[in-house]
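Could you help me review a protein record that somebody else here produced? My question to you is simply how this chain folds and whether the tokens agree. Thanks in advance; the entry in question is below:
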Amino acid sequence: RNGWEFALKEVNSSGGVTVDGRKKRIELFVEDSQSRPEVGLAAAQKLLTRDNVDIVIGDMVHSDVTLATMELAASYPKFFYTGEAISIEIAKKISNDKQKFANVWKHNFSSDSYASTVHDTLMQLVADGKLSPRTKTAAVVFEDTGFSKPIIEALTPLMEKSGWKISVREAVPIGHSDFYPQISKLRSNNPDYIVSIFTALNSGGAFVKQLKEQGVKVAHIGVNYPTLANFAQAAGSAAEGLMFTPMLWDPTNNPKHADFGKKLQASTGVEPDNNTVDAYCHAMILTGAISRAGSVQAAQLSAAMGKTDFRCLTARWVFDPDTHAPRIGGGFFEVPSGQFQGGKLFAIWPKSAATAGYKAP
């Protein structure tokens, strides 16, 4: 929300966007889905009918909410733009029914991209001799939400194809913070690689701290939560050596990121992180499309979105005409991994984006 408000303040202060030949300011309406599809669906219906919004954005995190709300596109001639929801099923639905979902566009990369980064980072560590697997087994500890499940579904076949087995799968409720039972299973299983997936900061902080308390020293990659602004403070020294993805925000090594972070923090009082900056880029892509279309009519806005080629702070957005999702790799959207080293964040994969080498825990 902070990223969206900062971006729209920037756009509105410069005169807004031109719609139907007139300069107009953009107004933001926010509803809470509570991470539940039925609540998100009701909220979207309220925005469309009572608030009469021109554009519906969301869900900002959970794919199952997005999969529910995008069904409204068949009944409302409005433009739908997803948030950070990552399930590849969103892109598949768009591809499989282009008429029904002609005006639905997916802002973020899909779950298969997260899974590829988790897998490919591991393969690089093995190829470089940084990790010598004993059993080729991995453990996954994850938040039982629509964010985590699609990543695991995409990761499993990748690992199996490379001769690895996911030997432990431990699901916990959102906000869970007592991981001693799960860590006990990890210790008895003794995997070569740990993957943890949370959207809740307290869960991620608790998990890495309890791993350290229990003396677990295994190559470990966290998805999403290590990129949250207050994670390093919550985890303390336990964050040292933790790998993570996506490494999109790098104020340590990227002067443009550092300058932008200072401006955002001065304006909002909030320390920027991956999510805040992605929200800013999210808003700028949309307002750019509105400006090019000169309209908020769904068909015209969809045509403009399809012609997007926009490099924001974190990536380059060009949308696939079949899936309406960002193109990945090959000069388009990259999903790198990083590592906490000496209290700072460094990119470690792919090598073309690396700012440091991997350091074993």
Q: What stands out?
A: The longest strand covers residues 165-172. DSSP finds twelve helices and 14 strands in the chain. Residues 274-293 form the longest helix (20 residues). The two ends are 35 Å apart (CA to CA).
